[in-house]
Design brief:
CATH superfamily of the largest domain: P-loop containing nucleotide triphosphate hydrolases
Radius of gyration: 24 Å
Helix content: 40-55%
Bound molecules: adenosine-5'-diphosphate, magnesium ion
Strand content: 5-15%
Number of helices: 19
Largest sheet: 7 strands, parallel
Distance between the termini: 47 Å
Structural class: alpha/beta
């Protein structure tokens, strides 16, 4: 097993680590160390409590020499003031034998005290985006000497709507900087941020756990399209005896609203929905109703459900297949907690089969497939996303092929099995996320 000594830390760092009583680096700390030191852009994904703070602090401090320069070299951005305080404290601990000036910057306290402190000279700034922006705009702090930017809890940051403020800050930062991002989960929003701002980041991802819990039974259904998924879902959920408390994961707010509307026709009063466009109060009520059992069903996006500690969920239903296989592990981990039996159901279309394969590769386990019950109607209705693109109509050959059933489920299935999923999975991802941007710049959300 690797020890901290194997990392060849500077003696001030090694001594500080020893004082804290840490003997072994955690997996994310071990993996992040050389990559961050290489100077590459990095995105690190690892569960809460796995030591992410030290994972980015250690390599940064290892290479941070002493200087009399007044302006900061490292910027750590976090979503809340509590986190600023916590991280300042941690970094102070790690650097206790170094001559390092660290300053926390966050709202809700006297701005002048913070301005004065940074004017006296600082090496590391830990800040929330809003207050930092105010101090920089006012001229009290210059960011031109920042070489390394860490965005911690990126998923929470984006979920709390800091995207705009991050954009503003990026414009004030030197372009030749190293970007380091850490998050407990990978989300579509993070992926968008990366595509827009960060060149070729290396992803370091520690799977939640490659092996699913034994007490969670997993099944999957191959389903033709969105509305057939709805029909199947309604069919399953009508069995109130077995589907006692069901958390349904969906991708994206728009999708969540669309599914809510359809399900509400059959399950009015026993269905709640949470996503980031709902107000805090609305979300709180929906969760409360679900927890106390007033509503049996809860629809949620990945990000919303992440911090929640929900009890005794009988089923987790994945209405779509998460594009990042780790998120599937996060999702199904919501059931089968504390020795309880739990079930997970995955609905996938032909298009999503590659993501299913990525999940199965991660788990080294094939999810057993169940045939759709005969009573479930196969819908012919298509969502806008499922309709063939405009250009298809202009191309008579493509059109013909589609009409002849070229997109039928089983044909795709056979075809996909032949492809090398690794590279294509990435390409599909890129294609998927770039799509909205290419449609005349129209925002889909
Ligand atoms: P995360 O950001 O991943 O949620 P933190 O960085 O806050 O996790 O660390 C969680 C806890 O683990 C902290 O109390 C920290 O001091 C402790 N910790 C971090 N690294 C180690 C290690 N290598 N050995 C033992 N404890 C550690
Ligand atoms: Mg953290």
């Amino acid at each position: 097993m690797e020890t901290f000594e194997n990392l060849n830390l500077t003696s001030p760092l090694q001594n500080a680590i020893e004082d804290l009583g840490f003997t072994h680096p955690t997996p994310i700390q071990l993996k992040a160390f050389p990559v961050i030191r290489s100077g590459k852009n990095v995105i690190g994904i690892s569960q809460t409590g796995t030591g992410k703070t030290l994972a980015f602090t250690l390599p940064l401090l290892q290479d941070l020499g002493f200087t009399k320069q007044l302006t900061p070299r490292i910027l750590i951005l976090v979503p809340t003031r509590e986190l600023v305080i916590q991280i300042v404290e941690q970094v102070k601990n790690f650097s206790k034998y170094m001559n390092l000036r660290i300053q926390g910057i966050y709202g809700g306290t006297n701005i002048n005290t913070q301005k004065k402190a940074v004017r006296e000279g600082v090496d590391v700034i830990v800040a929330t985006p809003g207050r930092l922006y105010d101090i920089v705009i006012d001229g009290s702090l210059k960011l031109k000497t920042i070489k390394k930017v860490v965005i911690d809890e990126v998923d929470v940051m984006l979920d709390l709507g800091f995207r705009f403020q991050l954009n503003n800050l990026f414009e004030l930062l030197p372009s030749s900087r190293q970007n380091i991002m850490f998050s407990a989960t990978m989300t579509e929003e993070i992926d968008e941020l990366i595509q827009d701002f960060f060149i070729a980041p290396e992803t370091i991802s520690i799977a939640v756990s490659g092996t699913p819990l034994d007490n969670i039974s997993q099944a999957k259904y191959g389903v033709k399209n969105f509305y057939t998924k709805i029909n199947l879902l309604v069919h399953l959920l009508k069995d109130k005896e077995s589907y006692k408390k069901v958390l349904i994961f969906v991708s994206g707010k728009r999708n969540a609203d669309r599914i809510f509307e359809k399900l509400d026709e059959d399950f009015n009063g026993e269905l709640g929905v949470i996503h980031s466009n709902k107000t805090q109060n609305y979300r709180f009520k929906a969760i409360e109703k679900f927890e106390e059992g007033t509503s049996r069903l809860l629809l949620s996006t990945d990000v919303m459900a992440r911090g929640l500690d929900l009890n005794q969920i009988s089923h987790v239903i994945n209405f779509n297949v998460p594009a990042f296989p780790e998120n599937y592990m996060h999702r199904i981990g919501r059931t089968g907690r504390a020795e309880q039996e739990g079930s997970s159901i995955l609905l996938f279309t032909a298009k999503e089969r590659e993501f299913v394969e990525a999940i199965e590769t991660l788990m080294v386990h094939e999810i057993s497939e169940i045939e759709i019950p005969e009573e479930v109607e196969i819908s012919k209705q298509l969502t806008p996303d499922e309709r063939p693109d405009d250009y298809v109509y202009k191309n008579p050959n493509r059109n013909l092929k589609l009409q002849e059933g070229g997109a039928s489920f089983h044909e795709k299935k056979a075809k996909n099995q032949k492809t090398n999923q690794g590279g294509k999975y990435r390409r599909e991802l890129a294609k998927k996320y770039k799509k909205p941007k290419s449609r005349g710049g129209k925002k889909k959300k």
